[in-house]
Amino acid sequence: MFQKFDLGIFLLAVLPVLLALVGREVAKGYMARHWGDPTAEQHGFLTFNPLPHIDIVGTIIVPLFTFMLTPFMFGWCKPIPIDSRNFRNTRLAWRWVAASGPLANLAMAFFWGLILVLVPHAPTDFQYPLGEMAKYGVQINAVLTALSLLPILPWDGGIIIDSFLPAHLSQQYRKIEPYGTLIVILLLISGLLGSIIQPLYTLIVGLVSLLVSLLGG
Fold this sequence. Notes:
The protein is an all-alpha fold. The chain has one domain (7-216). It is 69% helix and 0% strand. The chain contains 9 helices and no strands. It has helices at 7-34, 39-42, 56-69, 90-118, 124-148, 156-162, 167-173, 180-190, 192-216. It starts with 6 loop residues before the first helix and ends with a helix. 36% of the residues are buried.
């Protein structure tokens, strides 16, 4: 998305980025509570206040550097605390908790698409910044949806796959978990990550664009 650092673009992207990162974690916290685990709520994570969610490296340093140096922004928040011993059905609960993250980002991509529909009706002075912010919101959430569905533990896509595996295969699959984030970072540095997530990213952005064109006339 972003090839060269631009302070104006960065400032417009801050709100969509924070909402995208925090929103997915809040969604996971609520889903965990639905399945019987109140840990995230007890620790104050069921809030859109970004302060409890901020990870210095993942929420500030990595997004800033990827914003400046790569074609898209990449980052993460503190993972919400989950105690799976509280789940009513552990495997099914993990499946839905993991799915709630990318589903939240997908929903926010369409939310920013609806904002784009409303931009022409905003006061003239606000149309350009609001439109640019909404575009970044669509793009950032499309990227995070595609990223989080990578079939690598501990990412959401990996957790979803693991929830379907029989015990003996799950045990083998989980051996990659300690290296999962490193694998993704290496894919990012090598330039392969963009190619891997591009098809799903393009599909999401295309669907949002279709919605905007239909509703915007």
